Amino acid sequence: MAAASGPKFEATLQVITTSDIPLDQSHHESPSPPSILISATTSSKSSKLTVIPLIFVIYFEVSGGPYAEEPTVAAAGPFFDILGFLIFPFVWSIPEALITAELATAFPGNGGYVIWADKAFGPFWGWLMAYWKFLSGSIYNAAYPILCADYLMLVLPFFRRGPSRDLAIFLFNLLLIFLNFTGLAVVGYTAVALGLLSLLPFVVMFFISIPKLDPSRWDNASTLAGEVEHPQKTIPKALFTAALITCLGYLIPLLSGTGALKVDDGRWSDGFLAEAAGMIAGKWLKFAVEVGSVLSAVGMYEALLSSGSFQLLGTAELGFLPRFVARRSKRFGTPWVGILTSSAVTLSVSYMSYEEIISTANVLYGMGMVLEFATFVWLRRKCPTVSRPFKVPGGTAGVTCMCVVPTAVAVFVIASAQRTAYVIGGALTLVGLVGFFAMRWLKDRRLMEFR
């Protein structure tokens, strides 16, 4: 399951509300073009996230737990696998968290990384950033109902294949869409409960495994920020706490399973964590891990749907999309047009294979991340006087060096995709290019109302 969740710290920080003034003027820069006027449209009925719910929303955006980390043990062995999980945060997760913390607090406004790319390179690249990130998140989301259905069929074989399986996937989508519609505060506190419940079995597994640990076995050869209270302080704190929880969430079960069990590395395939829990503590813990995997899938779905729907709201407030896309529910304050649009994309790809879904989403996400790293570096050069409540240490050269390795990782992810993913990703990008000029044509002729 971890494979389905990209390390997307910035995705939860897409909606930052400011005063009703142009973005640039709020930072004492020259007046902005009309395309990036920001207005504070946060509904009074939309409760803001505090630090604890935000931590767990970010956690589900980034990871969701150690589920599906098992094949890495089979591929590299315990030693190199543990070493990889210790090193990877420093080459990807921490740089991305630092970038997000700086830009989300320096350039507040509904839209997050869409604002950043627009400010750095202009409306065309802002549109592409919005398009790639929105599609990647919505496509990723299609994987989670599939995973839920896969676990359901273990209990009820009737859902193993055919129309019954398709119906189960569809009903999972509807249920999770409704939960998201009830409000970001509900999603936030649901994320707290789901996060604690999905991690608890591994904490129990770790403590039970302590007497059995044999360290010698480890050396084998192996944007929601506008919905956030006090974002300048809350966002960096939540980002780095979520990063810590994510790293521990991967390492604790890995240390327990590889250290307490003397099994061949080849047995570490998808689902083996549940088997390992059963070997260490009994069937009850195996069942708890399996339930935790379903809860993790639910949490990741809700977090991605929230960020995707608020991203569309922010994109409309930036003037890229018609005004109606920014509409919120009068009762819950949620961006219902965004939720329906994101859900429609998710449902449309739900019946692709799991591998095709992940590979296609990775291509789109990778392109968006390369653009985001370039945006971060260029904004340091273009807007050096902008107030940055949180600033990554180092000048332009320093932050450029910091971005080299994560950019290489993003390029590697794109290069490793399936051929089908290139075809689908290329076709979708072409549609996005047409969409940009279509929106400009509609705006110029005033055929639709834009902000």
From TrEMBL:
Membrane-crossing ranges are: 49-67, 73-92, 166-186, 192-210, 238-261, 333-351, 357-380, 392-415, 421-442
Q: Answer yes or no on keyword Cell membrane.
A: yes
Cite a GO CC annotation.
Answer: plasma membrane
Give the subcellular location.
Cell membrane
Keyword annotations:
Cell membrane, Membrane, Symport, Transmembrane, Transmembrane helix, Transport
| Membrane topology category | Multi-pass membrane protein
**Which GO-annotated molecular functions does the record name?**
polyamine transmembrane transporter activity; symporter activity
The protein's matches in InterPro entries, at most eight in alphabetical order, are given as: AA/rel_permease1, RMV1-like
Q: Which Gene3D superfamilies match?
A: Amino acid/polyamine transporter I
Task: Provide the family line.
Answer: Belongs to the amino acid-polyamine-organocation (APC) superfamily. Polyamine:cation symporter (PHS) (TC 2.A.3.12) family.
- Name of protein: Uncharacterized protein
